[in-house]
Design a protein that fits this description.
Elements (H helix, E strand, L loop, with lengths): L3 E6 L10 E7 L7 E9 L3 H21 L5 H15 L7 E2 L1 E7 L10 E7 L3 E6 L2 E4 L9 H9 L4 E2 L2 E2 L9 E2 L12 E6 L4 E7 L1 H4 L4 H9 L4 H14 L6 E7 L8
Antiparallel strand pairs: 1-14, 2-3, 3-4, 3-5, 4-11, 5-6, 6-12, 7-8, 7-13, 9-10, 13-14
Helix pairs in contact: 1-2, 5-6
Organism: Blastobotrys adeninivorans (Yeast)
GO molecular function, one term: protein serine/threonine phosphatase activity
InterPro entries: PP2C (IPR015655), PP2C_BS (IPR000222), PPM-type-like_dom_sf (IPR036457), PPM-type_phosphatase-like_dom (IPR001932)
Amino acid sequence: MWNIGTCATINPRFRQEMEDTFAVKSNLVDKRDLFVAMFDGHGGKDAAQWCANNFGRIFRHQMLQLGQRFQKIAVLNYTFTTADKLLPQGDQSGCTAAVAYLYHPDHHDPRQLSLCLANTGDTRIVLCNNGTAGRLTIDHTCKNAKERRRVRKSGGIVLHNRVSGILQLSRSIGDHDLRPYVCCAPYTAEITIVPGDEFIILATDGVWHVLKDQEAVDIVRMAQDPQQGSQAIIDQCLVRGSRDNISCIVIELGYLENHD
């Protein structure tokens, strides 16, 4: 049912360790649903790898406990905060997190499709609608004026666009030594997929440092399928000199058109 493309590179010219990771799980809670999560680690790979191994499990357990009718946005919030609490305390690493959960709200009508999403940090989700890029997430960094105000209101300081002069991210999973200035609370949203919604892109900042949202969408649209699209994005990022690990997932949303 789902047409998905995934691609990632350590970018060995500039990096010696792969700190990006992701998880893709279909039929996680219900038939025909899709749970996709991407994590970009810093200070090591442990936090990102732990989240990739456990985010889906936490989300599924809570959904089964509460029932299908419970607000999925609330479950995503719970997943982020619970993962942050359960992350091994001795680990000094942290990570961003972006989650896309696609499901059918009406089991009797497969043409209806909804997307619940959440993110903390600067791993981004972008939607393509009729060729136009639309950013669905918020970059939680100290370049964001609202985030700088939140950090300062919590008693923190921002030096050179970094919390305490250390971390550019203003929200993350882990980084417990920077609490409460760096928090794990995600941005969340739910949208209904409509005709014209072609695909979504999840990607780490190794992509967004060198590609604009629209450029990434244009690259995918020129590809034959999501797998080629995700590979083409990685290739273009390398050409443009990205200095970070680079990871990208493309999820096709053509399911509605297939049932017209």
